[in-house]
Amino acid sequence: MRLICAKNYQDMSRKAANLISAQVILCPESVLGLATGSTPIGIYRQLISWYEKGDVDFSKAVSINLDEYCGLSPRDPQSYSCFMHQNFFDHINIDKKNTFVASGMGDFEANARELEEKVREGGAADLQLLGIGNNGHIAFNEASDHLIAVAHTEKLTESTINANARFFEKKEDVPTMAITMGMGDILAAKKVVLAATGLAKVPAIKGLIMDDVITTQNPSTMLKMHEDAVVVIDRELADAVGYRA
Ligand code: PGA
Fold first, then answer.
1. Does ligand 1 have an atom closer than 6 angstroms to the CB of 16?
2. pLDDT > 70: what percent of the chain?
3. Beta bridge partners of 30
């Protein structure tokens, strides 16, 4: 695992975006595993700006998203499908037919199987972008006494529901279940880029970068076994966990 410490959120976004654009420039047909949440918004903005300047071309890239809330249609503004269109796909030249976000409607178990089939069909992601939950979750693989290797439905923890409530009008509106890639799907990616910012992430990032322990109670720690995982954090977070470069 490699750690990159950025000056601030903007610098973190640029550094993570650099890794993604390098991947697409060197291999235009790359399979990108994409993430939602507030953290990657700056990364997508940076990539859009490089696309607009003609520095990166997404026309041959393929993308597959980590997760989707159960019960939200793709047109729901809170759905991850809608997030991806608004924050990234609608602003670049990726072929929408080559993007995949699991459906959050209908038969959730079947949708999870479809996500797993997509992961297998496209092959492991060339680069998987990740955020991290306050409890160390990656995608929606929640802290627990066990983790699941393949795509599945996951009951969200109270910590995740509380963290996500900021995006919804009322806490009761926050979905309590999601469809998520499994840990095996994520760890199979050839390269993983995890971006984190904000003091809410201190306990999770401490467990990820400050010791050698791997625990299902902080799913991000599984990345310690990955050959090419890059963690990009900002100075404020690095200082708060006591990391000295
Ligand atoms: P955030 O979410 O980027 O909105 O903090 C990250 C996550 O829960 O994976």
1. no
2. 100
3. none
